[in-house]
Amino acid sequence: MTTAATPASPDQTNDVKKVVLAYSGGLDTSVILRWLQETYGCELVTFTADLGQGEELEPARAKALAMGVPESAIYIDDLREEFVRDFVFPMFRANTIYEGEYLLGTSIARPLIAKRLVEIAREQGADAVSHGATGKGNDQVRFELGAYALEPGIRIIAPWREWDLLSREKLLAYAADRDIPIEMSRGAKSPFSMDANLLHISYEGGPLEDPWTEPPAEMWRWSISPEAAPNEATYLELEYRGGDIVAIDGQAMTPAEVLTHLNQVGGANGVGRLDIVENRYVGMKSRGAYETPGGTIMLRAHRAIESLTLDREVAHLKDELMPRYASIIYNGYWWSPERELLQTTIDATQAAVNGTVRVKLYKGNVDVVGRRSDDSLFDEAIATFEDDGGVYDQADAEGFIKLNALRLRNLAIKRGSAS
Description:
By secondary structure, the protein is an alpha/beta fold. It has helices spanning 10-13, 27-40, 58-66, 80-92, 110-124, 139-150, 168-177, 255-268, 293-309, 312-330, 337-348, 380-383, 396-418, and strands at residues 18-22, 43-50, 74-78, 128-130, 155-157, 193-196, 201-204, 234-241, 244-248, 251-252, 273-279, 285-291, 355-362, 365-372.
C-alpha cells in the first residue's frame, strides 16, 4: 500500500519554484526533500551546516545527489568559527543561562542557520526556505523569526505543520515507498532525539519523557560520569581579552578551538551534565538532558574574571539584564532590536574584562582557584584584615550604617507607636 501525505492546496504550491531546505540527510529531512518535490513540484537546494556536531556530513551530499539535487545546489558549510565567534562568545559575555540552568546550546545555533538559509535563498534566487522542526517545539519559532527578521518577504514551508506523516512509522513507510535512501545499518536506533553542536549535545524523548526516570548511563556521549572521572584534578589557565577566551595554558586559540578543547578536557573530567524540565516558548513543559562541558567551564571562569574587573553596580546591572537576554535568545529573537540593544550594552562592559583565570576540574566540578588581571579593581591594601596603614578608616562605617538604617528605624518607631 502506498503511503501518501496530505498535499498543500494548489494556491500554496503554484508560486513556489525553488526551495532551500535545511538538510541533515537523516530520515526527517530526506522525506521532507521528496515531499517538497512531489507537493510543490519545485527545485530543491539543500543546506547542511557544520556547527561542530562531530558527524560526517559528506553522506548528506551523496543522499541529496541521489534524490535529484544538482551538485551546484548542495551546500555543506563549515560554520564552526562563525558560530562560536559571533554567537556563542557574545552570549557568554552576558553569563547567559535560561531558567537558572540551561546554557542555550540549541537556541544559539538557530539564528546562524536561519541567517545562512536566507543568504543561500538570495544566492539561488529561491522563493522559499524550509526546515524540519516540528509544530510542538521551539525551533520552528527560532528558524522562522530569524528568517523573517532578515528577509521580511521570505516564504517559509514547515512540512510538519502541513502533512499527516506524524510518526516515525509513517515516515519510514513513505521513505520505503519512494526508495528514499535511509541508513538503517548503524545498529539499534537511539531512543532519544538528539541535537549537537560545538556548545552542547541535547537529549529528549524516549525514557526522558517521564521526569522521574533517571537518564540511563549509556545515553551520555561527551562526558564520563563524575564517579568514573580521574582521581587527580586537572588545572587550566584561561586567558581573557575583551571578555572572550583567547588562549588556554598559554597557547593562543581561535574561538572554535577554545570550545573544542574545553569540551574535551571538561568531558574527560565529568563536567557539564544537566537534567532539567524547562518551559518551552510554545507553552508546554519539556524534560531534557544536556552535556555542555566547555560552556560550563566558560561560564564559571567568565564570572570569575568579571569579579575582578567589573564595577559592582555594572556587574549587578548585568545580572539583572541577563534573564531577559536569555529569554530573548531562547524564544528566537536573536535578530531583534532588543537583543541588539542589550548586546551593545553587554559588550560595552567587557573592555576591561582581561586577565587570566585558573580553574580546577575534578569529578564533575569546576572550581575557580585563581584569577589575576592588570585591570583588576581588587585592592589588597583596602581589603586586607591586617593593618592597612590608614587607607580605610573603619570609623567611617558608623555613619554609613546609620544613614542606611534611617528608614528602618523610622519604620520601627512608627510601628511601635501604632501598637
